Amino acid sequence: MKPSQIYLAALIIIELVLSFYIYYSISTHMPFCIIGKGCDAVQNSYYGNIFGMQVSLFGTIAFALLFILYLYAYKSYKRYRFFLACTSIGALFSLYFLYLQISIIKSICSSCVIIDGLMIFIFVWSLKEFLKLRKYY
After folding, report:
1. Strands 49-50 and 53-54, sheet pairing
2. In 10 A of CB 43, how many CB atoms?
């Protein structure tokens, strides 16, 4: 793996760990907030669940799958297209969650903002890597 690929994989692992820690902290009734105090309001809001599960658990599962997919796809242009599609869906979810915090819930969870920001960054980085791969194929 090239250094840029290792960094991208590391970012996905960071996302996985942060999501899991938030899930764990909610299940122990001790909300995790990196900065500030808005995390409890966001994580326990109506929008704190998606598809019948906590958003943090959904994120943990999604980032674990994304990491596995990245390990499978980073060498192949065709497989990387699917990985890029998954990161774009993740970035759209992140933008939606940021919108919810700002406009609907009217409370900001710093931990969630970091996770959402990193997901958007992962998408942009993945797009950049995809364009590099495309030159070779």
Report:
1. antiparallel
2. 23
pLDDT in tens, the chain (137 residues): 788 889 999 999 999 999 999 999 888 887 778 887 778 888 888 888 888 899 999 999 999 999 999 999 988 888 999 999 999 999 999 999 999 999 999 999 999 999 999 999 999 999 998 988 777 65
Q: How far apart are CA 89 and CA 61, in angstroms?
A: 14
- Contact assessment for residue 48 and residue 55, using Cβ atoms and an 8 Å cutoff: yes
Give which of 39, 137, 14 is closest to 79, Cα–Cα: 137
For the domain made up of 3-130, give the CATH fold. de novo design (two linked rop proteins) (1.20.1440)
- Read off the pTM: 0.90
15, 95 contact by CB (below 8 A): no
| 33: three-class secondary structure by DSSP | coil
Looking up tokens 């969650």 gives 97
